[in-house]
Design brief:
Layout (H helix, E strand, L loop, with lengths): L9 E2 L2 E2 L8 H16 L1 H15 L5 E3 L1 H7 L2 E5 L10 H14 L4 E6 L3 H13 L2 E7 H6 L1 H9 L3 E5 L6 H14 L4 E3 L10 H9 L1 H14 L6 E5 L4 H7 L9 E9 L10 H4 L1 E5 L2 E5 L24 H9 L2 E7 H15 L5 H7 L12 E5 L8 H8 L2
Parallel strand pairs: 4-14, 5-6, 5-8, 6-7, 9-10, 9-14, 10-13
Antiparallel strand pairs: 1-2, 3-4, 11-12
Helix pairs in contact: 2-4, 4-5, 4-9, 5-7, 9-11, 10-11, 14-15
The structure holds pyridoxal-5'-phosphate.
Length: 393
Amino acid sequence: MSYQVNEKGYYGDFGGAFIPEMLYPNVEELRSQYLEIMQEEDFQKEFRQLLKDYVGRPTPLYFAERFSQNYGAKIYLKREDLCHTGAHKVNNTVGQILMAKRLGKNRIIAETGAGQHGVATATVCALMGIECIVYMGEVDIKRQAPNVARMKMLGATVVPATSGSKTLKDATNEAIRDWINNPLDTHYIIGSVVGPHPYPDMVARFQSVISEEVKTQLKEKEGREAPDHVVACVGGGSNAAGIYYHYLDNAKVNIIAVEAAGEGILTGKSAATSALGREGIIHGSKTLLMQTDDGQITEPYSISAGLDYPGVGPMHANLFRTGRGEFISITDEDAMAAGLQLCKLEGIIPAIETAHALAIFDKRKFKKDEVVVVNLSGRGDKDLNTYIEHFNL
Ligand SMILES: *Cc1c(COP(=O)(O)O)cnc(C)c1O
């Protein structure tokens, strides 16, 4: 049994492409060509070159000695925080901008919630000199002013979504509407392993460079390619998909997925999809989804904007359903404490999303000689105000 996508675009019961008829040509164009394009020698060469020279890959696999001593396990950190723009998201946007070029598209659209994916998209559009339109909820535009400014500096047009709750979901609706109206010249860059097939698989493949590097780096340091555990936080699930990818079908590697419990799973202010979600359809894909009894999507909550999402990608829904993945949820409070702990012990200020993954060491025991690789998905510069408020710094 494989935990990779099948030819129909499913991970077990989850995935597929549940899209309006009018979107079919766009999605089908991508679906019928993405694998072939990604396998072209020319494409790989350009992708690899940009990852190296522009993004700054390979990112280090760092043995966190003091952190390890503190928790009694051999803990390695995969330093995606050192990527250009400060997180893993750029791996995917570099890949998708090259895909767009091969498909003959000269206009890029994206949706963004907290603005991180918008910034990563605006960055690669500037790099390639391609027009970039980012849809963002009006409420989020107010909350995330620095990222709006970044996108504008990078030459993107930020379009406010003014319907519904004026947040990510509404921005996504606007982006889809745009794509339906501009099928010929426009590529829609989705920022995580979500959306209709082939997006979850395509994004996972672009992010899989993370575990590809870990294999080589761990071999050098530990004499083996596979750790005992891989750990990542899950919003939509792209940094997790990247670090799990080459270990998915290796049963000896335990997969740990960390979700945001917010103020607590049962408080009504949470984003712990595996604990609270039921099967449903969001953004064109069948997955686990936080919803009311009559199927309305529940507003998620987490202190970290990147984990504040009511679903998870279909790969992760399947890892949960089949028991292949171990799912843990972490509250705001515990994540913040773990973030500060990493600062003190290792001199690394993590993104609050990432801090959720680090917090499991207070909850779950490992054996002293077990090798645990944690994806350090991003750096904490963007979260400084939240840290300041939380700790009265
Ligand atoms: C966006 C983001 C996440 C969550 O997105 P995934 O698709 O689940 O990886 C996690 N960490 C950081 C630093 C982010 O910017």
